[in-house]
Specification:
Arc Repressor Mutant, subunit A; 2 domains; elongated
């Protein structure tokens, strides 16, 4: 469940600007603010069914965009690769001294500057 909520939030972060304002609002309130359909309907001035329709349309659009672009998938892969590089550089730094250690530290700083 938590991973699903995280994915829903990431979809909105990456592609939310491609949704209509109403879809984005309903989707955000439901997944990020954890409001019920009734609460969103009351706050937005639309029916509960209207909220449900907006959320479902937004989900379909966001998932379709991710299937086509794969930005979130590639982002997650890059994060994983960066973490593995960070671990390897840390191991290397601990095993080296002098100029080699300084190079490993410099590489670690460079990697950290990208995150």
């Amino acid at each position: 469940m938590r991973e699903s909520r995280l994915m829903q939030s990431m979809l909105l972060d990456f592609y939310g600007e491609l949704l209509t304002e109403k879809q984005r609002e309903c989707y955000d309130l439901h997944y990020n603010e954890d409001l019920s359909l009734s609460e969103i309907a009351e706050q937005s001035g639309i029916s509960r069914q209207g909220v449900w329709d907006n959320i479902r349309r937004a989900e379909a659009a966001l998932n379709q965009i991710e299937e086509k672009t794969g930005l979130i998938r590639r982002f997650a892969q890059n994060q994983s690769t960066q973490e593995r590089l960070r671990e390897k550089l840390s191991q290397l730094r601990e095993r080296c001294s002098g100029e080699e250690r300084a190079l490993a530290e410099e590489a670690m700083e460079l990697l950290d500057s990208f995150t």
